[in-house]
Design a protein that fits this description.
Order of helices and strands of chain B: HEHHEEH
Number of domains of chain B: 1
Structural class of chain A: alpha+beta
Strand order of the largest sheet of chain A: 1-2-3-4
Shape of chain A: elongated
Largest sheet of chain B: 3 strands, antiparallel
Largest interface: A-B, 30 and 20 residues
Strand content of chain A: 5-15%
Strand content of chain B: 5-15%
Largest sheet of chain A: 4 strands, antiparallel
Strand order of the largest sheet of chain B: 1-3-2
CATH superfamily of chain B: Winged helix-like DNA-binding domain superfamily/Winged helix DNA-binding domain
Radius of gyration of chain B: 15 Å
Oligomer: heterodimer
CATH topology of chain B: Arc Repressor Mutant, subunit A
Distance between the termini of chain B: 27 Å
Number of strands of chain B: 3
Helix content of chain A: 40-55%
Radius of gyration of chain A: 39 Å
Chain lengths: ~190, ~100
Amino acid sequence: MSSNDDEALKETGAQPPHFTQGTYKHYPDWRDIVELVRDSEGREFEVYTINGRRQLKNGVAYQEESITRYKGHVETSKAHVELRDKQKPPQKKLDRRSSHNSKPKKVVSPPGSIPLKLAEFLCSKKTYERVYHPLIAEEQQEYIEAISKNRWGKAKWIRIRMIGSFCLTTGTEFCAFLFSKPIEKIKALLK
Amino acid sequence: MSDLPRLTGKESLILDLLINQAGELYGLQMVNNSDGKLKLGTLYTTLNRMEDKGYIQSRKEAPRPGARGLPRRLYEPTGLGQRVHSAWLAANQHWAGAIV
């Protein structure tokens, strides 16, 4: 970019502006000291010391008392600096997650839907319809009733009880599955 | 001998609750009315077995307007269930008297 600038200056025959060192100014909200410099026409520009290097706002290197490479939008950066000088409070980004109303609503499945799906997958249709479905259905109804009365403690207890009942029912059904056939065989032998 | 209907203690208790209630009950009502004798975890397995034996019959609750969640299952005793239960009670009384 610098070579292009040089070429452009050569083509137009214009001279790069000459800067004289000015006064130092400290902006309290800036960590770096801003140096005010003047060009040959008396316009004021600001030079920053960023990471130990002195440069204009747009990143052009400032060499002691003159800037060899000049870019037209230096003034824009000055305007920006002036705005910072007035110490306008930075606008806070609106964090939508922090406000209660704008919380993204989560779609929550009713309690017992996962055990029900598991039972539907593992058990026969008859067992599902007669054993697991009524168990979960009744607990769900109780849960909804507790929530509608704002009894959150009871609702939590119902959830825990539901898991316990589901496990106990599964255990009973598993035992029945294991021992029903041998018992039937023994009965047939006894006849 | 093997063709005779059999009734376990839990089954008789469930039949007792259903007959005395003179209406349909769902599982949790039976648990609440049994004074802790019935547990929710084993109740539905017993009810399933009783339905297989023909002592009780069940149906899904009709969906109410504005109701959420799955429909409950309601249970009621069959004629066979009532007869078996009364026979079981009579036998119980007979044996109790014999022991005393």
